[in-house]
Amino acid sequence: MKKISLMGCPNVGKSVVFSRLTGVSVISSNYPGTTVDFTKGTTAIGGEKFELIDVPGTYSLAPTSKAEEVAQTMLQEGDIVIDVIDSTHLERNLYLTLEILGRKKPTIVALNLWDETKHVGIDIDVDKLEKLLDVPIVPTCAITGEGIKELASKLRDARQSKAIEPMSEEERWLKVGEIVSEVQVVHHRHHTIWERIADTTVKPITGIPIAILVILLTFLFIIVIGNLIIEYLMDPIFYNYYGPWVVGVVNSFSPDGLLHDILIGKSTIESLDFTQSLGLLTTGLYVPFSMVLPFVITFYFMLSLLEDVGYLPRLAVLVDTGLHKLGLHGSAIVPTILGFGCNVPGTLATRILETEKQRFIAVTLMAIAVPCMAQSAMIFGILGRYGMKWIFIVYCTLLMLYIFIGLLLKKIVRGESPELLLEVPPYRKPDPSTLLKKTWSKAYGFLAEAVPFVILGVFIVNLLYVSGVIGVLSTVFSPVLTTLLGLPEGAIVALIMGILRKDVAIGMLLPLGMSPQQLTIACIILTTYFPCIATFFVLLHELGIRDMLKAAGLMITVSLTVGIIMRLILIGI
Amino acid sequence: MMENPLSDMNSDGKPVPLTTLLPGEKAKIVALGRSIRGQHHFRTMGLMEGKIVEIIATQPARGPLVINVEGTQIAIGWGIARHILIQKI
Lengths: 573, 89
Ligand SMILES: Nc1nc2c(ncn2[C@@H]2O[C@H](COP(=O)(O)OP(=O)(O)O)[C@@H](O)[C@H]2O)c(=O)[nH]1
Ligand SMILES: [Mg+2]
What we know:
The complex is a heterodimer of chains A (573) and B (89).
Chain A: E1 2-8, H1 14-22, E2 39-45, E3 48-54, H2 66-77, E4 80-86, H3 90-102, E5 107-112, H4 114-120, E6 122-124, H5 126-133, E7 137-139, H6 148-153, H7 169-183, E8 184-186, H8 193-200, H9 204-253, H10 258-264, H11 283-309, H12 312-324, H13 333-341, H14 343-349, H15 356-369, H16 373-383, H17 388-412, E9 421-424, H18 432-467, H19 469-484, H20 492-500, H21 502-507, H22 516-528, H23 533-570
Helix pairs in contact in A: 3-7, 9-11, 11-16, 11-18, 13-14, 14-23, 15-17, 15-23, 16-22, 17-22, 22-23
Chain B: H1 5-11, E1 16-17, E2 26-31, H2 39-44, E3 52-58, E4 65-69, E5 72-76, H3 78-81, E6 85-88
Antiparallel strand pairs in B: 1-6, 2-3, 2-6, 3-4, 4-5
The complex binds guanosine-5'-diphosphate and magnesium ion.
């Protein structure tokens, strides 16, 4: 099977072209550097099967970063190159194109975002460009699919350019300038009203109020819509249909005993108990599907929307000065927001930061003070019934930790904190079907990852209780838990579970009959003391063992300290 | 309003840092300065000698500038912008 590598600068629409050609949906978003790893797929063109590789976007092949090294290798391994260009930024895109053509692989060029050229007033003479580069060129609009068929059908015409030879960096920029001046006409244009409105979102006087509004509306949307889904969809399904059915089925072959309790706990048809029964088929499914999934869906919908519209880089500009005080810069807001969905992709996304110092700080702060959506959903679920005040206390404490630990780490971690240098892409109208696909793929990813682990977690809890291990551990840790933190000794089960999954862990607090004060302290400790196992392995991979140990030491210290302080404030001595 | 005497001086060619430009003003880039990823990185963002820049927004306390270079908007830290030299037009 021949290999086609899809290459181009970041944010030119490669992932959308990839999806179009393969039918596989990959994550595309409107900020540079989305594709950290490469994706493979297959496609049949004219009866022949090809393997297609979505190569991470780079501006050049000179191996100065990881993404560029990957791009190099991919280029060498591929048989054919599809070079995707952002037609509205011909000049800088052509640099990479000339570099690729210099490598003498059969190449075809997709002039993507062709629709946008009209909006920004750019005319490109495609025929002339084709002559100058000596490879086939096809204008495309990947999101509507225009030109993709032609691209596929011209794939067999992909050829080595005879016009472009390998050259030095200096020569290449000159050549780019030459070509651009020959094929491109830019119509002078005044700023449109929309551009002026767009600019208000990066000016501090207007931008900061807008940012606050956007964040508040996002929160409100997630909470309100999430709750509606629970109330009108998930709970009715669980309580009216699934619950009676599953209890009936289990009762029919195992009316009582150990198996019955492990499967559905103490639930009966008259009193269904999904939150405290700790049954694999009751709590094990209710927690991920009804308590967490609705919020995961609404969160990723909003995140995808903000990403696709192109708001996040603007937010990065506005928070840059603040984040500098924590040793980071504005770009760190993107991984942090991703972390609120799940710390795993959040941690991976810190690769967009330039230095080790920034990455260590960003990753550590995330692990300590950024609860993932599954965890947040459970915090809302169990604290919400006592009033918003308690939820507020948890999140304020986490925010303060984020700031204080950031200030501290900036001082003590060695290394450089460079300044922001980030392209701010134009606002784009999000494509509804891409948006829904993206939301669905993230929600699906959550379910695939969470459901088995939640069920495993509930199963382990059952084992711990049945075997009496909990009793022993409770006694051992009782001094720390009860004396220092003011929690019941049974809370140890939540701390053990938290290493596997935080959502289940918080669920474990429910049967303990704790006061709202105790629940608040427990939620803060569960967020801060250690990452869940999935995040732990990513951290280990990203930080290396030494830095991981440092981060873990910090987490435990912070957690214990803040736990004791909160105990003194909320409960007293 | 009085003319800014400095801007008069600059118009006859002496390069000044990008950070001296005010929102709405335009200038020509004459030198790029340094970035931790090298000058090539600037160029790939469309930031090149000879191009016209316009300041879209500045942030307080020496925060980043948002500039427009031939239709591309770039957010650029104050410390980096300080080393980019421009000629007002
Ligand atoms: N208007 C328009 N937008 C596009 C086109 N192709 C991609 N996009 C959008 O451009 C952004 C970047 O696309 P993506 O595939 O993530 O770029 P990649 O970084 O090269 O993989 C996304 O918001 C896409 O929806 C196109 O042809 N026209
Ligand atoms: Mg991509």
